[in-house]
Every structure is written in structure tokens, then in C-alpha cells.
């Protein structure tokens, strides 16, 4: 009897949670649809308020929302926010058009970190042909693994270096597949930030960074983050920048 009662309570809780989550999803979808309608009728400020209210990086349409927020920022002549949203898109799905726009904004406002170079062109190719590149690499790995299995079934000897090479190759594929996660970009949001030689306020300043400068950051300890900016490697305070991916 107690078990039956407990089952009813558990079922009721699950049902309640399911209904509550679905209701929230419907509310979010309706609000986003409303914002889209406002955006289409050029009521940009009203649309922006709703987009920002429901801004969630895990939302499936977040890239479209970022594009719209970037356009709204452009119309408001808010170059700092336009750079932030476009850079956030660029970190996940780089394209020449976005790179060119970022470079245009940076030149106009005299900020660095957006110069287009050979590495950028490689990144464009990576994102444009990602399925084909990964598919080709996986195909080679499958072929190599098939040879290894065939030799094992035939009791043929093979050098240990073969297994080591295949393992390293699989690690390489994994790194290629997760390449965007290594692009840890950040935007300086303070009027002035200092890139220091080591993690201390007493350390010499290697570079003075201005609002809008884009950095590449990696390791964070306490209030300091190791980052790279235009040939300079050093530390800045974590409060001085906004991560964009």
C-alpha cells in the first residue's frame, strides 16, 4: 500500500516537472517569435529587450539571435556590442564575411586583434568543409584499423609502432573535431586593461589593451588569465574581458 502511494507521488512529480518545462519552452518560443515579428517591422529596441531577456547560449536558435543583436547594435552605432556578438558567432562558425566586418569595425575604431591572416583562411576552410575533412580522416582511421584487425585474425605480426601511430592519429582526429573549443577568445570591455609579464599587479606591462581588443585566453588562476595578443603573451585580470565562447 505504501509502495503504491509512493509511486503515485513520484509519478505526480515527474508529470508536474514535465508540464512545467514544456510550458516554459512554449513561453520562450512565443516570446522569441514576438521578438522576431518586432525585428521584421523594424521595432529594434523592443525586439532587443526580448532577445536579451531570453538570451541563452544553449538555445538552438541562439546564432540567429546573435546575428539580429549584432544588426541592432550596428543600427545603434554600438560597435562594442556588435563586435561582441559577431566574434561570438565567429568563434563557433567562422566565415569570411564576418571576418571582413570585424576587420572593418576594428580599423574604423583603431582596435586590434581582428586582422585577417593565413590562419583565418585555414579556419574558414575548416568550418566550411568540416564534415568532409572529418569524414576523410575517419575513413583513413577505419582503413588502418581494418588492416590491423585483418593481420590479427591471420596471426600476422605487426610492429608496435603501428598501434602507437594509429592511437596518435585518433587523438589528432579528436583534436580536429573539437578544434573550436580551443579558440578561447575574449573581448576587452574596460576602457583600458594591462597585459602583464606575469600574474601580479607589480609585474611590468607588456601591452596596454583598449576596449574592443580581442584576445586569446587559456589558463585562469585566481584573478589572472594567461592570454595572447598580437605576438604578446602575458596575464590580464579576468574582470577586464568578456569570454565570447
Describe the protein's architecture and organization.
- This protein is α+β, with helices and mostly antiparallel strands and 245 residues long.
- The chain has three domains: 2-108, Tetratricopeptide repeat domain (Serine Threonine Protein Phosphatase 5, Tetratricopeptide repeat, Alpha Horseshoe); 129-181; 184-243, Roll (SH3 type barrels).
- The chain is 59% helix and 16% strand.
- The strands form two sheets. The chain has a five-stranded antiparallel β-sheet with strand order 6-5-4-1-7. It has a two-stranded antiparallel sheet with strand order 2-3.
- Helix 2 packs across helix 3 (62-75) and helix 7 (130-153) runs antiparallel to helix 8.
- The termini are far apart.
- Residues 5-27 have low confidence and may be disordered.
The number of E-state strands comes to 7
* Anisotropy-based shape: globular
- End-to-end Cα distance: 52 Å
Average per-residue pLDDT, rounded, comes to 84
- Spatial strand order of the main sheet: 6-5-4-1-7
Number of helical segments? 8
What is the string of helix and strand elements?
HHHHHHHHEEEEEEE
Q: pLDDT below 50 for ≥5 consecutive residues: which ranges?
A: 5-27
What portion of residues belong to β-strands? 15-25%
Overall radius of gyration: 25 Å
Please state the structural category: alpha+beta
* CATH class wording of the largest domain: Mainly Alpha
| Helical amount | 55-70%
CATH architecture of the largest domain: Alpha Horseshoe
Q: How many domain units?
A: 3
Could you please say which CATH topology of the largest domain applies here? Serine Threonine Protein Phosphatase 5, Tetratricopeptide repeat
Major beta-sheet overview? 5 strands, antiparallel
For this entry, what is the oligomeric state of its chains? single chain
Amino acid at each position: 500500500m505504501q509502495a503504491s502511494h509512493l509511486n503515485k507521488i513520484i509519478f505526480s512529480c515527474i508529470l508536474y516537472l514535465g508540464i512545467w518545462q514544456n510550458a516554459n519552452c512554449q513561453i520562450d518560443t512565443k516570446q522569441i517569435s514576438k521578438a522576431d515579428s518586432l525585428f521584421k517591422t523594424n521595432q529594434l529596441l523592443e525586439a532587443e529587450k526580448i532577445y536579451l531577456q531570453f538570451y541563452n547560449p544553449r538555445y538552438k536558435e541562439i546564432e540567429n539571435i546573435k546575428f539580429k543583436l549584432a544588426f541592432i547594435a550596428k543600427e545603434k552605432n554600438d560597435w562594442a556590442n556588435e563586435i561582441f556578438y559577431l566574434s561570438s558567432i565567429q568563434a563557433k562558425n567562422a566565415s569570411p564575411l564576418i571576418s571582413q566586418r570585424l576587420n572593418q569595425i576594428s580599423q574604423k575604431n583603431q582596435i586590434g586583434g581582428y586582422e585577417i591572416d593565413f590562419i583565418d583562411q585555414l579556419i574558414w576552410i575548416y568550418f566550411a568543409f568540416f564534415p568532409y575533412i572529418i569524414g576523410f580522416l575517419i575513413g583513413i582511421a577505419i582503413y588502418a584499423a581494418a588492416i590491423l584487425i585483418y593481420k590479427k585474425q591471420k596471426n600476422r605480426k605487426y610492429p608496435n609502432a603501428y598501434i602507437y601511430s594509429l592511437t596518435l592519429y585518433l587523438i589528432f582526429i579528436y583534436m580536429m573535431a573539437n578544434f573550436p573549443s580551443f579558440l578561447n577568445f575574449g573581448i576587452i570591455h574596460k576602457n583600458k586593461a594591462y597585459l602583464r609579464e606575469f600574474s601580479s599587479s607589480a609585474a611590468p606591462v607588456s601591452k596596454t589593451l583598449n576596449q574592443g581588443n580581442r584576445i586569446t585566453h587559456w589558463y585562469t588562476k585566481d584573478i589572472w588569465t594567461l592570454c595572447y595578443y598580437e605576438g604578446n603573451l602575458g596575464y590580464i585580470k579576468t574582470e577586464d574581458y568578456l569570454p565570447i565562447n
